[in-house]
Amino acid sequence: MQTNELTSDLLRRLADLHTDGACVLSLFLNLDPSQFGTVPARATEAKALIDEAERRLREADRLSHDQQQSLRGDIERARDYLRSPAFSAEGAHGLALFACSPAGLFETIKLPRPVDTLAVIDDSPWVEPLAELAMRGSWAVLLVNRQTGRMLRGSPDRLVELPPIEDEVHGQHDQGGWSQARYQRSVEKEVHDHLKRTAEVAFRRFRRSPFDRLLLGGPEEILAAMEERLHQYLRERVAGRLKVDVETSTTAEVARAAAPVIEQVDSERERDALERLAEGVNSGGRGAAGLADTIAALNERRVGALLVSEGLSAPGVVCRQCGWVGADALERCPADGGELEQRPDVIERAIELAITQSAEVLVARHHPEAIERHGGIGALLRF
Ligand SMILES: [Zn+2]
User: Fold this and answer.
1) Which helix or strand (DSSP H or E) is residue 24 part of?
2) Would you tell me how many other CB atoms lie within 10 Å of the CB of residue 358?
């Protein structure tokens, strides 16, 4: 059993899952190393999670005999997994598990940040806690000086170092025998070759596994030359520069230097989106604000980015047949006349709808007041 990394593709696959009426068990396990650093602490938390799942199953009304049976089996399987050696959550700060045996689903995902321990039984995977984690994007850091290139990649919460890119470059100091000018030219050629090779390796790694944004670190004059040599795809992803020593800094030091830059980029991205939302709404153009208009745009699959304030919840209705979501208490689905089910909260469904139409999901963390002005939810529209 492989524990997967969280990606936006995986998230889309979960949000797209059709279960033909079967229920899905969604489990979130907090593995915050400061609280659950030891094996017994983790085991206790895992047991509490399974107990909560069992309680949810007992308390769930309106489940058919088949639904109950398959959920019982899924809870057993989750319990076995959490007791097994396969549950090696090394480096993970949280774990998500989705199970629905009638749909052939058993997915475990390592999370880079702690989550609240939570069990949910619903007719689709409960993806809300994952949406923001995945949407914060994937990052790479490229550190480069005259002879060494280092690359790290991952999420804002966890960067992993890749093998170094080292080239033989001679020192700049005078060495007898060669004329100084000729010697300098040869060194500059070596540096040039090193930057060229670093750019090639970085692009090869990007093609194998793309990332959204790139940070550069190293001496200023080298970074300017480096940036020029990067493939255009990488150049347009450069989001900032770090002040770290290229050769001696540890992965943890690079991550510490990257954190405020990433926060800043996140905050600016959020502010841009909120400004575009305000413009779109004011001009009657490509912006939807408030629950009713935002959900209408999601149902019409016109959303390019969904903005939602952290922790928002709102009641509404969901069509059992097609997944249509409504904020009002309608009787029948306007899309197919199917029966609508009253739900205490439809925000999670709104996020799922956004993910399945490849929209960005932005949970407003830096500028909450700007989204609360719009009723806590809004969307940038594609058309
Ligand atoms: Zn419907």
Assistant:
1) strand 24-30
2) 12
Neighbours of 238 (CB within 10 A): 16
Residue with tokens 């575009």: 276
Q: Which of 134, 157, 191 is the last residue of a domain?
A: 134
What is the model's pTM? 0.71
Distance 344 CA to ligand 1 centre (A): 18
> Is the residue at 231 inside a domain?
yes
Q: Is 154 helix (H, G, I), strand (E, B) or coil?
A: strand
Distance 62 CA to ligand 1 centre (A): 20
In this structure, the answer to whether residues 113 and 189 fall within a common structural domain is: no
Confirm whether 257 is domain-assigned: no
* Enclosing domain of residue 43: 4-134
Both tokens of 22, joined, read: 């079967």
What is the CA(325)–ligand 1 centre distance, in A?
8
Q: How far is the CA of 286 from the centre of ligand 1 (A)?
A: 25
Residues 203 and 231 in one domain: yes
pLDDT tens digits, 328-343: 878 899 889 988 988 8
Of 111, 134, 157, the residue at which a domain comes to its end is: 134
Q: What are phi and psi of 14, to 5 degrees?
A: -65, -45
